[in-house]
Amino acid sequence: MGSLFTAFRNNRAFKALHYRDFRTVSVCQIFGNLGFWMDELSRGWLIYQITNSMVQLGLARGIQFVPLLLFAPFAGTFADRYSRRSLLLFAQGMSTVIFAVLALLIYAHVVQPWHVYVAAVCSGLMQVIQQPARSSLVSDTVPSELLTNAIGLTSMIFNGARLIGPALAGAIIAFSDTDGAYAVQSASLLIATIWAAKLGPMPRSAEFKAQMQRESYVESILKGWKYAWNHKIVRAGIMCTTVVSTFIFPFTTMLPVFARDILNIGAGGQGMLLAAMGSGAVVSSILITLTGHRWTRGKVMLDASLLYGLMVVGLACSPWYWMALMFMLLAGLCHVHANALVNTVVQSYSEPEFRGRSMALFNMSQMLSTAGSMVAGVLAAAIGPRGAVAAMGLTGAAGILLLMVLMPAARKIK
Predict the structure, then answer these.
(1) Which of 105, 244, 290, 308 shows the greatest Cβ crowding within 10 Å of its Cβ?
(2) CATH number, residue 129
(3) In this predicted model, what pLDDT tens digit does every residue of 237-275 receive, in sequence order?
């Protein structure tokens, strides 16, 4: 048993866990991501329960585009300029309060659609603040040669939460309605906040601090954008994520409609659909953790993105629940193969002083899914949910093919 544990501990895939601060960041991610994925189901179910409107279902996610648009550029600069630990503490602590207040409103039977929208904007803002800081902390806490494996581990955590969170939220909603789900979400974020307080200081050079202080926020933002655009590898990764997030991933917005009105499986069934996607994502994360450092990352991220769009089209055409579960499983596999490898590419090729701003752009491109969700809601009202999901999946697949043609060197990124 001891030799088995030693072999496990010394395996390259898990060497990142030798570093205390990386372990601490990982625990923060476990509970923070659990609350995030529970909210993905809870918010959609709550707004659809209150309004019975597919358009408002899309808006409930799309409204998060507001803090993304206004604050995401500043979040990357904050992550490069200020303490990433402090930013993580603030954002997770505020998310604890937001979810607790919404739970109380639902429990008191006074919740209104505008409460859901305000909570979505506020929690979206907290996500915007913490994402570049938390992503950059991964790079800060492990050596560069272990970064792919470390990101694979954090992807396992993220997608393990994707597997457990929606299923847990669906079960809690079935048992005690959405107030119980939001209470558990608040507790999860509180635990994440407590663990974030254990992080040690991440030193920056005096020269770097002085340079950042001389620049205005706007200058820092523009400098980061210019850096990312001029760096061909970083640009390729961000453009890949932009296509996937805008056109392919927003299909999840329509899952309450598929669960309640098309497949007739209820909130628990929707949780199982997301859990199936999470299962595929976990398998993908394990593969990346164990062998991702040997892959041609550009080829895998583009091929996986193309297949992702086609899996979403398959889901839209699925007449049976078991078939929908299969396509969700494959979609989860493709999603993480694309997303985690882009994450690794952007972090690996960005210089440390620009990493926060590069990751902010990466997260901004990811969060364009909120804009895509609004489009999906409007399309669903016009041509039906199946047609909307299929149209967006096909558009995303076509966008990836175009990217392959315009940037052929992207497939050769190591």
Answers:
(1) 244
(2) 1.20.1250.20
(3) 888 888 988 898 888 888 888 888 888 887 778 778 877
